[in-house]
Design brief:
This protein has 150 residues and is mainly alpha-helical. The chain contains five helices and no strands. Helices cover 54% and strands 0% of the residues.
Length: 150
């Protein structure tokens, strides 16, 4: 359990780690579609962890820092995190600079609707996505753990 666990029990940093481990297992098992799908959730959860760290945990029943489908839009989540990170005194500035190139990576095309698609992903694409997810995880959640934030 991290220090960013929501009153609902959702724990985005912990979920990011779990999804990364599962994506790596699926990649090794040549299940490219599943590896890519979970890689997107790694990035989503890592970005949400940054939003929660910067804005603070909402009170029980309070609003989250993302709304509806925007909560799955990696470009939007990254933009929200980047906007907050440049504010004076931002706690997340240290973690955002390392993922500044995220909007240019193929993984930002991820959507949760991929779960409904037939298995057509290439293993090489899955390798790229898992590598990108691992980098984002290490530079955000991993670094936050090392810093004692989580």
């Amino acid at each position: 359990m991290s220090k960013l666990q929501l009153p609902s029990g959702d724990d985005h940093p912990e979920a990011a780690g779990k999804h990364l481990a599962d994506a790596e297992v699926l990649l090794a098992g040549k299940r490219a579609d599943g590896a890519m799908y979970l890689s997107g959730y790694v990035v989503e959860c890592a970005l949400k962890a940054l939003l929660l760290y910067e804005k603070g945990l909402p009170a029980p029943g309070g609003a989250l820092p993302w709304k509806g489908k925007d909560g799955h839009d990696l470009k939007k989540l990254h933009a929200d995190v980047a906007t907050l990170a440049v504010m004076s005194g931002a706690k997340t500035a240290r973690y955002v600079n390392t993922i500044a190139t995220l909007p240019k990576l193929p993984i930002v095309t991820w959507t949760p609707e991929q779960r409904y698609r037939a298995a057509v992903a290439a293993q090489s694409d899955a390798q790229t996505w898992v590598t990108d997810a691992r980098t984002v995880f290490n530079d955000t959640v991993g670094a936050m753990r090392k810093d004692g934030v989580l």
